[in-house]
Design a protein that fits this description.
211 residues, alpha/beta, Rossmann fold, six-stranded parallel beta sheet, two-stranded antiparallel ribbon, 9 helices, 38% helix, 18% strand, globular
Length: 211
């Protein structure tokens, strides 16, 4: 009898529920119906409301890399003999450290792209009631001056540092990506617009959401 594949879904819920949450629930149910064993690791940004001042002080650092996430994901992978880690959202409590937990255990990691966050801290390519791709054309510093994430220069800086550091480390080049449309794929590949390749085009695939 063929062994069931074990999938670890990783998702950081926003304070306001959205479409990403629905996709996570639907995909988990679909995979289970098709014989996969699925585990869910999640955090919720509502935790920020009750977080003490000490943890809030270090939030800009843990947004870039969370030791807590790294240890917990690595433990789950080993204890449950996970075959694939499928990430949906990492902002802001989970952080890209989830990728490194997978890398360290030599488990493939997939990132579903629900928005344009890897290129635009505001995630939407939209500002002041018009399309904006300044962060692609002029650099991520544009987002800081315009306070593109939650109207906060400090929180936007945290997003920008996360993107800059993990681009430099080559984190995103080691990941497999699922884009929802060809348009999303084209936009994601704009990460390779400069001299350095940020992601591997051969690891980017298109898979639409289902109803």
């Amino acid at each position: 009898m063929e062994k069931k594949k074990k999938i670890l879904i990783v998702h950081n819920y926003y304070q306001i529920p959205g479409g990403e949450d629905t996709v996570v629930a639907n995909e988990q149910r679909l995979m289970e119906q098709n014989g996969f064993e699925v585990l869910l690791y999640s955090r919720n940004n509502s935790e920020l409301k009750t977080m003490n001042k000490f943890k809030k002080f270090f939030l800009p650092i843990t947004t870039i890399f969370s030791i807590k996430t790294y240890r917990e994901i690595k433990r789950i992978i080993k204890q449950n003999k996970i075959d694939v880690v499928h990430v949906h959202n990492t902002l802001s409590l989970i952080s890209p450290s989830v990728y490194y937990a997978a890398f360290s255990t030599k488990i493939p990691v997939i990132q579903t792209i629900h928005n344009f966050r890897l290129l635009c801290p505001g995630a939407l390519f939209y500002r002041d009631n018009k399309i904006c791709e300044d962060c692609v054309d002029k650099g991520l510093k544009c987002a800081i001056s315009n306070k593109c994430y939650r109207g906060s220069r400090v929180q936007t800086l945290g997003c920008v540092l996360t993107l800059k550091i993990h681009r430099l480390l080559g984190t995103y080049k080691r990941i497999n990506y699922i884009c929802l449309t060809e348009f999303n794929k084209e936009k994601l590949l704009l990460l390779n617009k400069g001299e350095k390749q940020v992601i591997d085009p051969n690891k980017v695939f298109v898979k639409p959401n289902f109803k």
